[in-house]
Amino acid sequence: MIAFGTLNIVILATYLLAMLLIGLHFSRRQQSGEDYFLAGRNMPWIPVAMSMFASLTSAITFMGLPARAYEENIALLVVCFVSPLLVPILVLVLYPAYRRHGVTTSYEFIGLRYGQAGRTAVSILFVLARLGWMATVVYAPALALSVATGLPLYLTILLMGGMATFYTVLGGLAAVLWTDVVQFVILVAGAFWVAGDVIIKAPGGIHQILDIAREAGHLNIFSLNFSLVEMSGLIVAVSFFLQMLQDYGTDQITVQRMLAIKHNSGVTKAAIFNACTDIVMVALLLFIGLGLFAYYQLHPEAAPPISADAALPHYIMQVLPAGLSGLLISAIFAAAMSSMDSGINSLATVIEHDFIKPFFPKTPMGKSVVSRARRLTLLLGILATELAFGVSCMTNIIDSFATFMGLFNAPVLALFMLGLISKHARFRDWVISVVAAVSGTLFLKYIANVHWVYFVPFSFSISFSLTWILSTIAEIRNRQGH
Predict the structure, then answer these.
(1) I need a surface site. Which of 75, 183, 240, 301 has the fewest CB within 10 A?
(2) Which domains does the chain have, with CATH numbers?
(3) What is the reported pLDDT for 482?
(4) Rounded to two decimals, what is the model's pTM?
């Protein structure tokens, strides 16, 4: 462990100050709830596309993908092929429906199909999932950065959580979008720089990195051996197709951004841009993981990291020069903060539109919405930051993410899909299936020790199929009764 250094502190402080100034700039433009929650529905598509990637990428992806390649294999490369398959579903089915109905949250759309009970239920699941997700995306990089830089853990958590909360409270979605643009640039530039550096550090360049990875079995992608305790290309494809369909198609974080775009054509452009960025960045981050593995194989005296999740920040601080390491540490901060700001802004939106408005219709609107939203955002930011201190029991950050997805988000996706393809699916049957799906997912994780990549497909399958079966039985009985 080495000291973070004065130059690195100055660079990180400059980055954090820039984020605050963006929030202050947009704080004066928040005159209504639509301004605060949807940036006036008047955003150009490019910043929205960048924000969408930055928000869902997070430190879970920026640190987690290299960690999986470093520790296991690059089966997650399959995600590069999955992401483009989602674009037609998003731009032809889901987003046009949201925009046509003029909703502010995707869960309002659920209410049109299943009633207020369905809308409230999925909103609750979203709140639970995103609170856990935000705690994870702040805690995990904070811990890794603390170990790599020597900065106190509490300080790294407070910097990430506190700063993201502050500028989001001030500027709403507009501040979130434009800070995410800066964070997108830092993320992408940082990843390319690290990839170039690991290539230079390997005497044989890319070929040597791949040779070392191949000998260690890290290039095994399409293994035909079925195992519930390790990744393979097929299960990754199924898992991430469902996971990304939920992320990009039904999750409020993404839907809220797409609803902020001024024109329908911009929605299509943003979806295509995001898919292309997914292809490049997933492949690049996995290659970085292989490069880090090769570097520590070639330089065992360099003291490899204690955990795979710390591999990237460890390399940045131990190998790269001061100044450059500060920029790249800022990239990890950017990854965490872009997720934190998006999460608390979307949570505030859901609570306002799916809880306060339906259940307290006499609540003052107009400019008072902005004041209430800011207070709510502040409380959510404080809560998420506090929760970040309580997720240390998680094994690794990708595992944590998959657990939250399987427990809360996969059942929501099942309800959306059933609503689109079935006229007979009933909300009460879905509730029963959710209990079964959540119980089963917890069993897989804590009792059977099944690999995390199975959580989402299992939870979705149980939620979808059991709801379908129960609703079909009820429909048959109704017909027989008549």
Answers:
(1) 301
(2) 6-396 (1.20.1730.10)
(3) 60
(4) 0.80
